[in-house]
């Protein structure tokens, strides 16, 4: 046999379950499938050492005496079956691991379609979150392959959209990924665009609601491209989204999270109101959804939230499992009010037992004078050290940290010393939370026993720079 870089791993189902006569072959095949599924070759039961009288020199096989890692995520595995009547068979299986240390991560992407030849005068429609995905508007132009329209940012300060050759999703023109910017590949027309949208995010650019953007879509025989630019608050083009009145809905355990209950606009006020009754369990959970779109959920930062120390989040698609919790007597009426103005959202919940509580979105929550922040980490042996608020700059808090004898320190931040409200970094050092636990810590390195100052700037738009640090007494703080 030819030389192999790695030997074949040889094991037998018979060492585990004996000979099943007519069922022996299918037992071996089942074991092959399980080995591929885990990318692991189990040992031959009771085999500790090879019989010295067997000649295995030059035979590129390893007789498993312990569990072996195959080293690959995909592999072949085979079984031979020799029948008593002289019928022999062989089955070889190929597959990839779906469990264990070599499990393959499956990622499906839509297949890019080749550019479709554009008929002269082809209409292109645009549909977006500025009308709750309810209306298609024809874009202007198209004679030279260039289409334009203008949209105004709503109170959420971001808008999503896709294009279509018809007033439905069957001929959608969309990005290859969701929440795409102008650099994403444009694909379509096709019917694979569900959940794949472009996003114009005024929050990143720090622009207010009402800002107008002009969208330009270019469709030539060679390629498709899309761009948008801010044009201020005036334009000659028709502006989409100005006249549409968004709606708010509640969903919760009071209706088994099945469907939505529409909230009523309070005349003369800038908020919506809805009610529900507490059931026989004496507790209900709920969240709010804008335009009945689960991608625009409004929710607290932690599950089963009762504390106003947690900020409100959304509208966005990350609200799964994060609800407000209200307790009370059966049949108690709970009143919920929501307001969304220029990216700032607030939710007020009131009942006889609860009284009245208000949750606010990040910008308002960050500047509460009653809010306090504490560092916990290696430098204080897991205790808490308070951060001092900056008297001249709202939302800024500072704390000094002493590096250890090896010149390191790690920490995360607690809100109001609440173990359920933790600020911590993700893998890219962007601030996450407050939520239930710190999955990562910030790490400081420098000369041993150096005093560093940690700065928390809650109004910093770049979430990678909200937490920064530097040697105490310097003005340059680095994240």
UniProtKB/TrEMBL annotation:
This is Beta-ketoacyl synthase C-terminal domain-containing protein. Transmembrane segments: none annotated. Keywords: Phosphopantetheine, Phosphoprotein. GO terms for biological process: fatty acid biosynthetic process. Coiled coil: none annotated. It comes from Alexandrium monilatum. Residues 7-47 form the Beta-ketoacyl synthase C-terminal domain. InterPro entries: Ketoacyl_synth_C, PKS_NRPS_Biosynth_Enz, Thiolase-like. The lineage of its organism: Eukaryota, Sar, Alveolata, Dinophyceae, Gonyaulacales. The keyword Phosphoprotein applies. Signal peptide: none annotated. The keyword Cytoplasm does not apply.
């Amino acid at each position: 046999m030819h030389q192999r870089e790695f030997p074949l791993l040889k094991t037998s189902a018979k060492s585990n379950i004996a000979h099943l006569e007519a069922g022996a072959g299918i037992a071996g095949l089942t074991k092959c499938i399980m080995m591929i599924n885990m990318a692991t070759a189990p040992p031959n039961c009771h085999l500790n050492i090879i019989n010295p009288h067997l000649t295995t020199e030059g035979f590129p096989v390893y007789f498993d005496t312990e569990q072996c890692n195959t080293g690959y995520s995909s592999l072949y595995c085979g079984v031979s079956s020799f029948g008593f009547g002289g019928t022999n068979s062989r089955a070889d299986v190929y597959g990839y691991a779906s469990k264990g240390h070599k499990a393959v991560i499956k990622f499906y992407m839509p297949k890019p379609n080749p550019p479709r030849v554009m008929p002269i005068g082809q209409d292109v429609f645009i549909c977006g979150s500025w009308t709750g995905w309810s209306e298609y508007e024809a874009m202007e132009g198209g004679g030279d392959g260039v289409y334009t329209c203008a949209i105004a940012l709503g109170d959420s300060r971001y808008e999503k959209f896709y294009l279509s050759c018809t007033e439905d999703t069957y001929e959608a023109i969309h990005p290859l990924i969701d929440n795409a910017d102008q650099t994403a590949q444009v694909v379509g027309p096709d019917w694979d665009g569900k959940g794949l949208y472009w996003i114009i995010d005024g929050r990143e650019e720090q622009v207010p609601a009402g800002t107008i953007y002009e969208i330009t879509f270019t469709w030539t025989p060679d390629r498709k491209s899309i761009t948008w630019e801010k044009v201020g608050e005036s334009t000659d083009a028709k502006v989409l989204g100005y006249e549409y009145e968004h709606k708010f809905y509640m969903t919760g355990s009071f209706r088994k999270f099945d469907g939505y209950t529409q909230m009523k606009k309070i005349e003369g006020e800038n908020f919506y109101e809805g009610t529900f009754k507490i059931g026989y369990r004496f507790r209900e959970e709920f969240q709010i959804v804008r335009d009945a779109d689960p991608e625009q959920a409004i929710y607290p930062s932690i599950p089963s939230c009762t504390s106003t120390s947690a900020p409100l989040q959304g509208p966005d698609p990350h609200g799964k499992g994060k609800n407000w919790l209200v307790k009370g007597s059966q049949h108690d009426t709970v009143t919920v009010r929501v307001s969304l103005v220029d990216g700032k959202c607030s939710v007020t919940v009131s009942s006889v037992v609860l009284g009245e509580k208000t949750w606010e979105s990040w910008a308002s929550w960050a500047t509460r004078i009653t809010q306090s922040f504490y560092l916990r980490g290696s430098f204080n042996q897991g205790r808490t050290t308070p951060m001092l608020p900056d008297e001249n700059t709202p939302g800024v808090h500072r704390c000094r940290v002493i590096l250890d004898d090896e010149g390191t320190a790690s920490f995360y931040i607690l809100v109001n010393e609440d173990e359920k409200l933790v600020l911590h970094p993700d893998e890219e050092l962007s601030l996450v939370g407050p939520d239930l636990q710190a999955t990562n810590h910030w790490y400081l390195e420098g000369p041993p026993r150096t005093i560093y100052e940690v700065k928390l700037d809650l109004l910093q738009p770049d979430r990678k720079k909200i937490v920064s640090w530097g040697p105490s007494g310097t003005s340059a703080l680095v994240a």
